[in-house]
Every structure is written in C-alpha cells, then in structure tokens.
C-alpha cells in the first residue's frame, strides 16, 4: 500500500531564518513523537539560499496527515511562523 507524502516549501523572511528553523525543528520532533501516523519529517535547506526551506513528510495515509494538521502543536507552529513566511507551497503525493 502506498503512503501519503507531503512536500512543503517555504520562503522565510530575511532575518527570521534562525528563529524559523528553531520552530521547524520543534515541529518535526513533535510530529514524529506525538503522531503515530507521521513516519518521516525531513527538513531541507537550499545550499545557496538559507531562506528556502523544503519539508518532506511521509504519513501512513491521508487521515494521518489530516490529524497532523488538526494537532495543537501544528496550530501553535503555524501561528508563530506565519508572519515570517513570504511564500509557501504545499503539495500532496502518493508514495509508491
């Protein structure tokens, strides 16, 4: 059975990159530790542009991702970092 994959790409406001990464690392840790359906939560930074951040997440299924979006820690994360984000693109995939 295929897993549910998500990529999220963020462009972070200049001067907020370090604070964003602190929050992003906490978000990844919370997702992996508190959500049984979250299997992988990788954070990648563009080598040439530290404000360009890519997430690669794998969930057991779409419901697990929906649970992630509904989690308290995700809501707190989004509330904190939204003012620091200049653009965001989320895409959902079937991992085969």
Which terms would index this structure?
96 residues, alpha+beta, 4-stranded antiparallel β-sheet, 3 helices, 39% helix, 43% strand
Q: Which series of helices and strands comes N to C?
A: EHEEHHE
User: From the alpha-carbon coordinates, what is the Rg to the nearest angstrom?
Assistant: 13 Å
Parts with pLDDT < 50 across at least 5 consecutive residues: none
Distance between the termini: 8 Å
What's the helix count? 3
- Assembly category: single chain
Tell me roughly what share of residues is in helical segments.
25-40%
Give the overall shape, derived from the CA principal axes: globular
The profile of the biggest β sheet is: 4 strands, antiparallel
Strand content: 35-45%
Compute the number of strand runs: 4
The overall average pLDDT, rounded, is 96
**Strand line-up of the largest beta sheet:** 2-3-1-4
Query: Structural class given helices, strands, pairing?
Result: alpha+beta
């Amino acid at each position: 059975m295929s897993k549910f994959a998500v990529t999220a790409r963020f462009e972070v406001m200049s001067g907020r990159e370090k604070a964003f990464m602190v929050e992003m690392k906490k978000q990844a840790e919370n997702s992996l530790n508190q959500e049984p359906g979250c299997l992988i939560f990788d954070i990648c930074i563009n080598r040439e542009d530290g404000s360009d951040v890519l997430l690669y997440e794998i969930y057991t299924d779409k419901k697990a991702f929906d649970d992630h979006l509904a989690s308290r820690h995700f809501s707190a994360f989004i509330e904190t970092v939204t003012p620091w984000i200049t653009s965001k693109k989320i895409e959902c995939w079937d991992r085969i």
